[in-house]
Specification:
The structure is a homodimer of 167-residue chains. Chain A is built from 4 helices and 7 strands; from the N terminus they run βααββββββαα. Helix content of chain A is 23%, strand content 32%. Chain A is globular and about 40 Å long. Chain A has a single domain, classed as Alpha-D-Glucose-1,6-Bisphosphate, Chain A, domain 4, CATH 3.30.530.20. In chain A, a hairpin with a 3-residue loop joins strand 4 and strand 5. By secondary structure, chain A is of the alpha+beta class. In chain A, strands 1-7-6-5-4-3-2 form a 7-stranded antiparallel beta sheet. At the A-B interface, loops of A face loops of B.
Chain lengths: 167, 167
């Protein structure tokens, strides 16, 4: 379901793909409204206490993740592509307004671009999250850090949240 | 003429603004077709021998610059925003396909995003090129390297090319 402009490279990228038992409209809403992203986006016991979205190319996607000890990490990403109910692309390599970021995203992970894809399958959805990295070292560190488990846990939380009738 | 999503910071950015005596349609074409970019985009005696454009968000903008001794530099940028005859945005912080770039753009210039803006003024055009940098050091190095003179000379070459009746 990836468009031709996106090229996945197994040496540089991490992919999480899963059929989820929720309709694409709800999965899209969970990704594109702060109130419906906060409840699931961070694997517990970490929580999101703040989230801002300016949903247009160049707009800000800003959120924190707060640990059980109260320690906080902030992330400020830039939206790149928004195709409702199909594809959402944002990057930590740019700040909002398309300015190159001066910061390393995570220790050992220079930066990454996230591509979230959705494909309607009746009342279910084929969901795929891809993290595109600049180099093998960043991809490996992100993998070792638990990308698949972390994003997988968050996705499970998303499905539970959506099935609870929140939307 | 900058949209709200773009925020210029005088400490980080370099701006070249000039009224040019060519219509906006032609200035836009000079920026968006390889055959009409190659003749002017590199300040002489450097020349462009190769240019590729995949004019869509995420698409490639790839070109070389060849010096009089035959030495070549290659640049591979990613288009971010294309608003015909108004604004063209591309970055060297991302490779085509939105992947974060692993390369430093120029020695001492980590990367930059270029925002080229056009405003029709009758048969003339208000033209503005802005380079957005991640940090002050990159901006200063780019400035010392001759951004204003280099991009200014290229713009003069563009106007001459367009006035010669090439388009």
């Amino acid at each position: 379901m990836t468009t031709s402009v996106l090229k996945v490279n197994p040496k540089l990228d991490l992919v999480l793909e899963r059929d989820i038992d929720v309709p694409v409209e709800k999965a899209w809403m969970a990704w594109t409204t702060p109130e419906h992203l906060k409840p699931w986006f961070s694997p517990k016991p970490w929580v999101i206490t703040h989230c801002e979205m300016d949903l247009r190319p160049g707009g800000a996607f800003k959120f924190d993740m707060q640990g059980p000890e109260g320690d906080k990490q902030w992330f400020t990403a830039c939206y790149l592509e928004i195709v409702p109910q199909r594809r959402l692309v944002w990057t930590l390599a740019l700040e909002p307004g398309f300015r190159p970021s001066a910061k390393e995203t995570l220790p050992g992970v220079k930066s990454f671009t996230a591509v979230i894809e959705f494909e309607a399958k009746g009342k279910a959805t084929l969901y795929r999250a891809t993290a595109l990295h600049p180099d093998e070292a960043s991809a490996k560190t992100h993998d070792d850090m638990g990308f698949t488990e972390g994003w997988g846990t968050a996705l499970t939380q998303m499905v539970e949240y959506l099935k609870s009738g929140a939307i």
